[in-house]
Structures are given as C-alpha cells and as structure tokens.
Amino acid sequence: MRALQTAATGMMAQELNVQVISNNIANVRTTGYKRQRVHFQDLLYEHYRRAGSATSDQNTMLPAGISIGSGVKTVSTGRVMTQGNMTPTEKQYDVGIRGEGLFRIRLPDGRTAYTRDGSFDLDAQGQLVTRDGYQVEPGITIPNNALSVTIGSQGTVEVTLPGQTAPQQLGQLQLARFVNKVGLESMGDNLFMETAASGPAIDGVAGGEGFGTVQQYYLEEGNVQAVTELSSLIAAQRAYEMNSKVISAADQMMQSTTQIMR
C-alpha cells in the first residue's frame, strides 16, 4: 500500500526536523550562533486524471483532476541570519557586531573563514586571535606594554602607551558581507566558509556602506528563541506521531484486505 511509503517519508522528514531543532536548542547560549530552519517540499505526483482533460466531444473538460502524492522531502536547512542580542562582558577584547557583517579569520592552512563570534584574545606574540588561536584579520599586534586598548565603533584599534598622552592607532578590523549569506557553509567552531551559493566576500570596515558597527566589551548572543524552538519541537513530534498512526492504519487495512481475499 502506497500510504506506508508516503507516511514513512513524513516520519523521516520530522526526524530530521527534530535533529535540527535539538541542535538549535543545544546552541541557545553559543556566541554568534544562527539558528537553522528546515524547509520541505512535496514529492512527485501520479496523475490518474489531469485537470483540463477533455470529457466529451463538445470540448467539456475536467475542472479538477486526480493526483496522488508520494510524500515529502527535505530541501534545505538554511540559517536564519537575524541579529542576536548584544550582551556586555567587561572583557576588552570582546567585540560584537551590531548590524551587517562578519569578522574575517585567517585559518592555519591560509584559507579565510568568517564569524560573528567576536570573543577574541591575545596569543603569545600579542596578536589578536580567536579562542582557537586563529588570527583575526588584518593581523593586529598589541604591544606588551600597552596601558589600555580601545576598539572604536568602526573597528579602529588604538592603544595608550607609557609616556604618551595621545592614543596610537594600530589598525582596523576588517569585515565582510555576502549577497547570499544563507549560502555560507558552516564548518563548526562558530566559523563559516564562502561557497558558490553565497557569492564572493564583499570586504569593508565597520560603519562603511552596507556594514554595521562594532561594540567593544560586548558579544552577540545566538538568535535562538527557546520558546519558539520548544513550540516547533512539539509540532514536529505531533507530525511524527500522526505519520506513525497512518502507517498503523494502512497496515491494518492491508491485513483486512488479505483476510477478505483468502
């Protein structure tokens, strides 16, 4: 019976939906995390009578046909790239982005990754790096005798050195944005990679045209809404249960048919 296979596709789709929701909930406190959302499409249809088919020699036609679908499929688990809340941290190397843009990160193999996680630190050479030790572009080194470090809203990094009254500018943090940021590939560690779907990176600086600003002593929280995710989880569970009931009902119908034919 076709209903068995159709309902099975529904159960598999909702199982994947629950996996995505559980990952969102697990990352509810992950800095800069962007929640995922599952998108579904219906599968192919078998047409027994097509709408618009002729029903007589007088050009009468069917106003509606008979089409039987074969289930559902998952087409994407795209990310919702909306702004998360900005939370104060009191750490001078924490930098949050308010608005459009991602930080550029230089990986050990030379590739460039992108992130919304601005929880930075210094390495042994005084370079600004991520929590995993990856260099933040364009490669800013803080002198070891710096009295204070200030990161402005446009990403300019300034330090105050002993014996100087005016701050010294060391560089400016680089940002990037994409035509289709949903097309970025997640690689874990709060990092994204450019893909053919995202398009090439559009480089710039905070406060520039099309870019947001940055805030020192702040981090962007993940944009997961716990209540919304729990509601979606309940809905996915109910859909899974309904598909399982369809399988049970179809199985009972097949057993009844078999008994009648004996």
Explain what you see.
The protein is an alpha+beta fold and 262 residues long. The chain is built from 2 helices and 20 strands. A hairpin with a 7-residue loop joins strand 13 and strand 14. The longest helix has 36 residues. The two termini are 18 Å apart. The model has no long low-confidence stretch (mean pLDDT 91).
Element layout with pairings:
Elements: H1 2-26, E1 36-42, E2 45-49, E3 66-69, E4 72-79, E5 86-88, E6 95-98, E7 102-106, E8 112-115, E9 121-122, E10 128-129, E11 135-136, E12 148-151, E13 156-160, E14 168-172, E15 174-177, E16 185-188, E17 191-193, E18 202-205, E19 213-216, E20 218-220, H2 226-261
Antiparallel strand pairs: 1-4, 2-3, 5-20, 6-19, 7-8, 7-11, 7-15, 9-10, 12-13, 13-14, 15-18, 16-17
